[in-house]
Design brief:
150 residues; 5 helices; mainly alpha; 65% helix
Amino acid sequence: MALVGNMIHEAVGGNPSIVNYVMFVAVISMLSLFYLIAVTFSEGFVIIPILPVIVDALNTLFFLIGGIALAAYLGVHSCGNIPYVTSNSVTSGSYDDTKRCHEGQAVCAFLWFGFLTYLASLAFSAMEARGGTSSFRGGIRRGGPSMSQV
């Protein structure tokens, strides 16, 4: 979020739409994390049992779209390649285009990392909503009788 915010702050003459979309993804992710963390610690925050799955699925989708789109806009070039840096719509538009290029590439890497983490969170949320267990407490015979009941 800070890298994208810095890209927006240092822009001269506006930003391409992909930079604004990535900022949207970062803000939505931060807001949804407040809910998801609260649900993790207390099941009393679950309004609808499927809601954590929906929130994780939306975050996963937003991060996937952001990672694909930003990678497509950036291309695969070196930030030391001055003709590329000055002609690319994402990297140009700042007083220090090379720095903006490095920030854009770092944001792209963070988007893909966020996609993978939300994908894992989606899997755990789906198991929890289905009635399975996403944690290891309770042992292997969670629903069966314990030794004191035999």
